[in-house]
Amino acid sequence: MQDFPRLGLYVHIPFCSIKCYYCDFAAFSGQNAIARRYLRALETEAGLYKGRRPETLYVGGGTPSELSAPELRELFALIGRCFPDVRFQESTFEANPESLDEEKLSVLREAGVTRLSLGLQTADDALLKSIGRRHTAEDFRRVYRAARAVAGLAVSVDLMYGLPGQTLEGCLKSLDDVLALSPEHVSLYGLQVEDRTLYGKRDVEPDEALCREMFEASLDRLRAAGLRHYEISNFARPGRESLHNRIYWQDGDYIGLGCSAASYLAGERWSNADRLTVYCDAVEAGRSPAAQRERLQGREKLGERAFLGLRLVEGFVPGRELEEAFAPQWARLAARGLVERRGAVVKLTREGVFLANQAFSEFVPPFDDAIQHAEAAA
Ligand SMILES: C[S@@+](CC[C@H](N)C(=O)[O-])C[C@H]1O[C@@H](n2cnc3c(N)ncnc32)[C@H](O)[C@@H]1O
Ligand code: SF4
């Protein structure tokens, strides 16, 4: 298996121009005025990790491009002060089309950013408006071209399917528009309706059969365009997979800075307070911003390895302990046609990729060890 980085650094920037109707991330509109205070808190928190040498950087959100150019300069300067002499193998910056301009792109270039993750969701302007977005498809194309021209960045584009009012033709047209630009990477997400979002409150329910059609047809187009499906929601040209995300999927360590950010070091995992001011208050008072901590052990730890490993389309080698700890679950998934084996490698089938959340639920407590399903017993 290819060598990959073992420690990643994630920095969460929680500001957004508007809250999209489907979004459940720690992302707040109308709060940019406290950006300087937030950056100071990030630097204080980063001080806890002095001496560590992360190999990848991911600045995500929220919308990092909501920071002004001087604030962005300060963000990268503080990362440099806290992790001196670190040269990241990959440095990703997440942005929205309405808030990234040439001046900010120059800051990214000077800071050594290598990769831009640009959120489009759909190239249909009417649909963009109806899901709460503030940009048009043309804004996206302009920023995409500038990212190439000004900063020479590799680009990943986020797209969604299953949005209310989205048609199969519309979904594929968006994908074709994006593929025409030849991005190195595409992330394609099926709409998840979360309770706390506007869609959750309105009981929006994606049409499962239509989602299935959108996903299947998209897989074929992405493959035809030379983008390899390497993780449930991610597609890349050869050698352009996200190194940072691979750390999460391959059970590596990561440091998360900022509100809601998660960290995982030496078997312990914790996430910071979601709320912006709760996070800042804690850091400023010299308290830990962590809201919850856990150390996964035994079957829980093995279960996590299973569903993380299954996220990779090429599959993974579970090993004897994980095979035995979840023998009924593996049998049930095989009987349902959701996993398949090649030698020691286990992977999701095409059906399993679409129903991945059902497959993963087998490895999350409370575990159901009874082989009561007729198909599994057969
Ligand atoms: C951290 S988020 C947002 C990044 C950036 N602010 C943007 O909106 O483009 C990364 C991606 O997750 C996806 N996403 C967010 N909420 C989702 C949901 N409820 N269901 C499916 N995908 C979602 C969107 O494609 C989004 O671009
Ligand atoms: S999808 Fe992006 S822009 Fe929209 S609210 Fe979430 S983080 Fe902010």
Description:
The chain is an alpha/beta fold. The protein folds into 2 domains: 242 residues, TIM Barrel; 80 residues, Arc Repressor Mutant, subunit A. Helix content is 39%, strand content 21%. The chain is built from 16 helices and 16 strands. A 9-stranded mixed β-sheet has the order 9-10-8-7-6-5-4-1-11, sandwiched between helices. Strand 15 and strand 16 form a beta hairpin. The longest helix has 17 residues. It is globular and about 60 Å long. The mean pLDDT is 95. The chain binds S-adenosylmethionine and iron/sulfur cluster (SF4). Iron/sulfur cluster binds next to loops.
Question: Secondary-structure map with pairings?
Answer:
Elements: E1 7-13, E2 15-16, E3 28-29, H1 35-46, E4 56-61, H2 69-82, E5 90-95, H3 102-110, E6 115-121, H4 125-130, H5 137-151, E7 154-161, H6 168-179, E8 185-190, H7 198-201, H8 208-224, E9 228-231, E10 234-236, H9 243-249, E11 253-257, E12 262-265, E13 268-272, H10 276-284, E14 290-295, H11 298-311, H12 319-325, H13 327-335, E15 339-342, E16 345-348, H14 350-354, H15 356-360, H16 374-377
Parallel strand pairs: 1-4, 1-11, 2-3, 4-5, 5-6, 6-7, 7-8
Antiparallel strand pairs: 8-10, 9-10, 12-13, 13-14, 15-16
Helix pairs in contact: 1-2, 1-10, 3-5, 6-8
S-adenosylmethionine (SAM) binds at residues 22-25, 60-61, 63, 94, 96, 119, 121, 158, 160, 189, 191-192, 194.
